[in-house]
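Regression test case RT-17, inverse folding.

Input:
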């Protein structure tokens, strides 16, 4: 196979030029080396915050895309970690570079058949717009390598809202990709996965700094992403919902600290409140105020072997649309259906007293 990239040894890993025609450019700060492996894949914390929106929540507008990845064996052993960045000069997304035929992942698996699981941690969900075709390339790659599983974690959904012209196309492509379950899973980044990213892909992070609190705006964005991807694909995602600590005094402090702040810049026309230590809708809070959490560790589960389930479903729908019932109909639910035989018995005080007298007479007759 003739690869579409050039790879060079660096101090702490390798740097990769994904296309032969890429060169240093004033329009793109990362050109031409958009793929970096090993410790070369680490990025500064400021860049991680700006692109992934951690810990405060999504940042807009978002023009850069960044995808961290891990290549693992079937037992979960790490073969390689790295990242791919978008090219702003040539408008190329990271997934397009990684999953290109004869591209970097194609060559990696061709040269190491022990790779059985690919994990992506992306700033945006993959798209399938005409200039990128990321999902189409991913789909073709998975068809070519049916023994390889793919787990995609994303920080925010990309162009799936109705105001974007390609939203319908992107949503349909996400449904198509999700239909490859269990070979493919789509989930929001949440919970301990954030701390795993800080530890493995962000430079200058160590010890306690890795386990910094996930703030309200970020936690609510993750929950929103889980709801949206479920609504789009019909497949329930892996999602770690952070639970507040049980100590009442800490809950009181958290509620007091959250009093009077707004979340409108994260969720327009939607707000939340803390009730009995849990986030509930209706009041507003500041995304920059930390939530008191019990940290749920990221469970690094071994990948699912595709061959174990020959009857895998193509589309999985886990939601139910309940019929709309009017207020008048709810009142009518207490009435018996027409045509049902009903025995109506009215017990009056006189009837009850006469019944008691008859029972006393029967007892006297027995004596």
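Golden output:
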């Amino acid at each position: 196979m003739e690869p579409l990239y050039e790879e060079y040894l660096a101090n702490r890993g390798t740097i990769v030029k994904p296309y032969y025609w890429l060169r240093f450019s004033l329009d793109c700060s990362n050109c031409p080396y958009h793929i970096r492996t090993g410790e070369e894949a680490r990025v500064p914390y400021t860049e991680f915050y700006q692109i992934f929106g951690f810990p405060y929540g999504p940042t807009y507008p978002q023009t850069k895309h960044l995808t961290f990845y891990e290549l693992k064996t079937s037992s979960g052993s790490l073969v390689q970690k790295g990242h791919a960045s978008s090219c702003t000069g040539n408008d190329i997304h990271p997934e397009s570079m990684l999953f290109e035929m004869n591209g970097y992942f194609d060559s990696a698996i061709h040269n190491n058949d022990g790779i059985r699981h690919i994990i992506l941690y992306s700033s945006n969900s993959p798209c399938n717009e005409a200039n990128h075709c990321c999902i189409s390339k991913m789909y073709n790659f998975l068809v070519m390598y049916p023994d390889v599983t793919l787990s995609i974690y994303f920080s925010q959904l990309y162009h799936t809202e109705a105001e974007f012209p390609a939203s319908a196309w992107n949503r349909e492509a996400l449904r198509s990709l999700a239909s490859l379950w269990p070979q493919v899973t789509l989930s929001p980044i949440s919970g301990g996965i954030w701390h795993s990213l800080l530890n493995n892909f962000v430079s200058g992070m160590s010890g306690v700094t890795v386990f910094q609190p996930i703030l309200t705006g970020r936690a609510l964005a993750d929950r929103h992403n889980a709801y949206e991807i479920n609504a789009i694909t019909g497949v329930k995602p892996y999602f770690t919902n952070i639970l507040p600590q049980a100590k009442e005094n800490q809950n009181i402090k958290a509620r007091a600290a959250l009093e009077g702040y707004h979340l409108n810049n994260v969720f327009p026309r939607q707000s939340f409140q803390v009730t009995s230590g849990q986030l509930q809708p209706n009041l507003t809070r500041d995304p920059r105020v930390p939530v008191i959490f019990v940290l749920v560790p990221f469970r690094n589960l071994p990948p699912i072997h595709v061959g174990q389930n020959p009857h895998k479903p193509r589309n999985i729908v886990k939601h139910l649309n309940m019929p709309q019932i009017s207020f008048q109909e709810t009142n009518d639910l207490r009435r018996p259906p027409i045509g049902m035989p009903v025995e109506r018995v009215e017990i009056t005080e006189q009837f009850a007293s006469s019944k008691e007298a008859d029972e006393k007479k029967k007892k006297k007759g027995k004596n």
